[in-house]
Design a protein that fits this description.
The protein is an alpha/beta fold. It has one domain: 3-Layer(aba) Sandwich (Rossmann fold), CATH 3.40.50.720. 43% of the residues lie in helices and 16% in strands.
Length: 263
């Protein structure tokens, strides 16, 4: 299958039928794959990339049962930036080209702030920014070479203004969000796009046992918002949309007021 050019400018992106999911067992990532498959006339080819071979196999079986998705797996240690370029290249070869890369890698922790375990805090920041930032660069370099494609970056509203309740996660997402915007601006000249997705609290495995705040969402709802944003050629998506409205206000509050909020 030959690559399909993706011209920069107005109009919707071309249909997507070749997807690489970095973090191949991610609930949100898999929900995005299923949502995109629902609109693909010829079905979807997807390469699930990660280091858990058994988990990838189970995820592939679940997608295969859909009937519209043809999954393959690429076992690679995404925790190691030295493997990122090769992992994405192998995925591209398995699909005979890439139209979309979804970066769905991250860990949640360090929520005790100053009292958090130092090793846990460093791990949250390392994975959330250094590992994901390296994956972003590697994905963009691959797409830059073929002069078309889109990278979806799963950011978070937590990165829009770092809160005392999850400072390390929020700081990592703030860095990743900014990097995605900067690299995305640089990539547009070659017809390569980035879509930054900023979910609120997502109910799922990662947040199991945590109190559910207002405007909480689900992997399926995030996938729906992502698919709509992708089809519209947008650069940023909030999920749900209401959190974008809320944070547009919260971001400009004086710090003395911000620190008193029960966030």
């Amino acid at each position: 299958m030959s690559p399909r050019p993706h011209a920069d400018g107005a109009g919707s992106p071309p249909p997507v039928d070749r997807v690489v999911l970095l973090g191949g067992t991610s609930e949100i990532g898999l929900a995005i794959v299923r949502r995109l498959a629902a609109e693909s006339a010829d079905g979807l080819q997807v390469a699930l990339v990660g280091r858990d071979a058994d988990g990838l196999a189970r995820a592939a079986d679940g997608l295969r049962a859909d009937g519209r998705i043809r999954p393959s797996t690429v076992v690679a240690d995404l925790d190691d930036p030295a493997e990122h370029a090769a992992a994405i290249r192998h995925a591209a070869e398995a699909l005979d080209g890439i139209e979309l890369v979804v970066i769905a890698v991250g860990v949640l922790g360090g929520q005790r702030g100053i009292a958090a375990d130092p090793a846990e805090a460093v791990e949250v920041m390392r994975v959330g920014f250094v590992v994901c930032g390296s994956l972003l660069q590697a994905a963009l370099r691959e797409l830059y070479g073929q002069s078309h494609g889109t990278v979806i970056v799963l950011s978070s509203v937590a990165g829009m203004r770092v809160r005392a309740s999850n400072p390390f996660y929020g700081a990592a997402k703030a860095g990743l969000d900014g990097l995605a915007a900067g690299l995305g601006d640089a990539a547009r000249a070659r017809g390569v796009r980035t879509l930054i997705v900023r979910p609120g609290f997502v109910v799922g495995r990662m947040t199991a046992g945590l109190p559910r705040p207002p405007l909480a969402t689900t992997p399926e709802a995030v996938a729906e918002a992502t698919a709509r944003g992708l089809a519209a050629g947008r650069e940023v998506v909030w999920a749900p949309r209401a959190v974008g409205v809320v944070f547009s206000i919260l971001r400009v509050l004086p710090r003395a007021v911000w620190r008193r909020l029960p966030l």
